[in-house]
Task: structure prediction
Amino acid sequence: MSSSTSVTGSIRKLAFSEKFGYGLGDLAANFVFQALMALQLDYYTKTVGLTPAQAGTMFLVVGLASAVFNPVMGVIADRTHTRWGRFRPWLLWTAVPFGVIGILTFTTPNLSSSAKLIYAWVTYLLLRLIYAMNNVPYASLNGVMTDDPNERNSIAQFRQIFANSAGFIVGSLAVPMVAFLGRGNNALGYQLTMGSYLALSIILFLIAFAVTKERIQPAATQKSSVGQDLSDLMKNGPWITLFLITVFYFTALLIRGNVMLPYFESCAGNKILFSWFNGFGLTALLVGVACSTALTKRFGKRALFFWSMFLTGILCMALFLLPPTATIPIIALEVVRQFIYGCSGPVLWSMMGDVADFGEWKLGRRATATVTAGIVFALWVGVALGGAIAGWLLALYGYDQHLTVQSPHALLGIRLIASVYAGASFLASAVCLLFYGINMKLNLTISQELSERRRKLSM
Result:
């Protein structure tokens, strides 16, 4: 049986080229996602001209509204039938719209304040919708390229390496690029910087579409039922736990990500340090990601993820103990934190396929995209909450984006948000992992039993 044939049987090892090509898809998407994590609050307040409260409200309302679309997209993707499969064609169909809408989002038109606010809401909503149309099918691919849980983690490792490579590019190069390309005009700088990234994204999405294949399909006898798919989710305990883990995980990332630029600009007094901080930290993260598959095989996904989140939360909080001007200790702490965080980086994405397997193993039905979309919905809930919380807390502490020198209360708020509040959310994710029911032994059992079922169906 050829591994390139779309079947219900057992598919195990994948070629390096397919894993690499799949990872390029996340490099493409993360030019936008990483910009939303690290730069959106700065962009919408300093360049577009929104207040932190206005930006925070937009992040929450649009974020939650577009998050609801993710399960809808999952249902649509599960019911897409083409000669390319269910999920791959969405990479082809959304590549150009993703690039165009992304560029429009980071374009600041010469309009009145009210008109700019409307433009910001419309383009931000469109960006979030096209992201869901692209990313839900893309994330679902991991669960249907192979049925080997370790191989899935290897695929996710490639994905995470490329995602964090985008994080490195955006985090360490975007701010200098905006300054260089804009020549004092931040609006032009953002447009040209993000425009160059998004033009590359279109090409990378097309490569990911071309080199990947879908192999694991629902049984031919399975009847399509949206109600049954959603009912199955509520019976899938590991999926519910992973949902909560994901919400806290991305809430933490966005709370911290949105305040680190104000931290270095206002607390440390040197905006350029933001690029150095991200450059060293994300390099350590990539090393951690590279270690992930070996550590997962040794300790299991649940154990690795728990200790990564627990230690990440503690180290995040430790930032508050350092004076903002202690550049070398701050960067050293970030290197350690990012390495530990990176060790679990691919695990979340690999777990999406595992909880889909659990549902099929326990209930006899498979709906990969619906399962994945539910977790991606949680991701965007976390993104919305994290962005909103960061904006609202900055406003609560009296941060004023128009001031060169912030008040002592605002500086304290920035430091607390970047450390204690973000760290608490990472710790909440660790607590949820204690209730995740799929350990290493059960993961292997499920994989073996499902492979045997598919083998019998294909005979």
